[in-house]
Design a protein that fits this description.
single chain; alpha/beta; Rossmann fold; Ubiquitin-like (UB roll); seven-stranded mixed beta sheet; 12 helices; binds guanosine-5'-triphosphate; binds potassium ion; binds magnesium ion; GTP binding
Length: 404
């Protein structure tokens, strides 16, 4: 039996299984089996990667992929927002490969990717579905482009969400708050810090059934929120990609103000019209926020800040603390870091003396104060002395164990 048939079979069995507290373990086992098969789909035997026409190199300060049904206006949007022209036309599947363009916004260069339209069944390889989804996985933000003028547009939204979920993408979610560690022995240690209401009569047994489906018999699981069995499968399966998704309803030039207003109120959404150039600036601003981007202006001692070439950080990728900024400037910076002086939104007073963990905010000014040469020598010397002391102790212990 092929993978697709096996998936079908399990889905049918899940439909047949009555959902109640007693069947939670059985369902968990089926869900785990399904997740394993689906992740096999993700790694095609043909070498993986983006596939021809899809392996576009990463560039700029972040990557955004446009996902949508055919002819919703993805290529029109790319041509409008970037210097790249991507062919747009009234027939479906105009675009057949991945086409990159650059968006310049707030001193940041964002790589925007136009992709072929996808349809129901994309996750199972329909059309160029698998290639498109692989690109989506590699991006920092998904723009789900929808045809706001189409009836049942929110059904389309759901279909696409399901396709992306199927292959392990998790949109606008945070990873389940579960501590999970594999062990060499000792069996399964299961604990929770709060009452679990969604894992059936015996949460521990439900979790163990999922684990045994993965042939995991020794591990530690500590659940810190009221998770579902799907969350547990996500934790154990492990290859989930948590990514932000912004829903872009295009073509609102074709609908009434009332309908437009309804769409604009959907969560994580924005309405635009590429043809009328409506709301495109707001789209860029929202993209920027969703990518968690910030600009940090650096400053040298005794000089004014450099406002021309900021360091760009992202809460979704690098993180946005002083350490991330220092590493961005140079690798060695961390070794010689003494403290930082920060001016701007993140401080209580200006300048504020900060350590590596301080969280920066957009348009902060940062000056890194390195250790003095003497301090550096001293700290290196200290490490050496400490190491010598440890070595000496270890040798002594070998010779004659210390009495305790
Ligand atoms: N009314 C209206 N039509 C639009 C708008 N944006 C794009 N279109 C039209 O929608 C059709 C499809 O546009 P494309 O940009 O080719 O759509 P696509 O999503 O790239 O399509 P595929 O590459 O085939 O998946 C074209 O006829 C566009 O002119 C808009 O804001 N309003
Ligand atoms: K088209
Ligand atoms: Mg196109």
């Amino acid at each position: 039996m092929g993978i697709l048939e096996r998936i079908k079979e399990i889905e049918q069995e899940m439909d047949k299984t009555q959902r109640n507290k007693a069947t939670e373990g059985h369902l968990g086992m089926l869900k785990a089996r399904l997740a394993k098969l689906r992740s096999e789909l993700l790694t095609p035997s043909s070498g993986g990667g983006g596939g021809q026409g899809f392996d576009v190199a990463r560039s700029g300060d972040g990557r955004v992929a446009m996902i949508g049904f055919p002819s919703v206006g993805k290529s029109s949007l790319l041509s409008e927002l970037t210097e790249t022209e991507s062919v747009a036309a009234g027939y479906e599947f105009t675009t057949l490969t991945c086409i990159p363009g650059n968006v310049y916004y707030n001193d940041t260069r964002i790589q925007l990717l136009d992709l072929p339209g996808i349809i129901e069944g994309a996750a199972y390889g329909k059309g160029r579905g698998r290639e498109v989804i692989a690109v989506a996985r590699s991006s920092d933000l998904i723009l789900m482009v929808l045809d706001g003028a189409k009836e049942g547009v929110n059904q389309h939204r759901q279909i696409l969400e399901r396709e992306l979920e199927t292959v392990g993408l998790r949109l606008n979610k945070t990873p389940p708050n579960v501590y999970y560690r594999l062990k060499k022995d000792g069996g399964v240690k299961f604990n929770s810090t709060i009452a679990l209401t969604k894992l059936g009569d015996d949460p521990g047994a439900t979790v163990k059934r999922v684990l045994s489906e993965y042939k995991i018999h020794n591990c530690e699981v500590l659940v810190r929120e009221d998770v579902t069995v799907d969350d547990i499968v996500d934790v154990v399966q492990g290859n989930r990609k948590y990514v932000k998704c912004l829903y872009v309803y295009n073509k609102v030039d074709m609908i009434s103000i009332e309908d437009m207003d309804k769409l604009a109120r959907e969560p994580n959404s924005i309405v635009v019209s590429v043809h009328m150039k409506l709301n495109l600036e707001a789209l860029l601003a929202k993209m920027w926020v969703y990518m968690g981007l910030i600009r940090i202006f650096t400053k040298r001692k005794g000089h004014p800040p450099d406002f021309t070439d900021p360091v760009i950080l992202s809460s979704e990728r690098s993180g946005t603390n002083v350490k991330a900024a220092a590493q961005h400037i140079s690798r060695e910076m961390i070794d010689v870091f003494n403290y930082a002086l920060v001016w701007g939104r993140s401080t209580k007073h200006d300048p504020m003396r900060c350590g590596l963990a301080h969280q920066l905010q957009d348009e902060d000014v940062l000056q890194i104060v390195p250790k003095t040469i003497t301090q550096q020598k001293r700290s290196k010397g200290y490490v050496k002395i400490a190491q010598n002391a440890k070595d000496a102790l270890a040798t002594r212990r070998k010779k004659k164990p210390l009495k305790t």
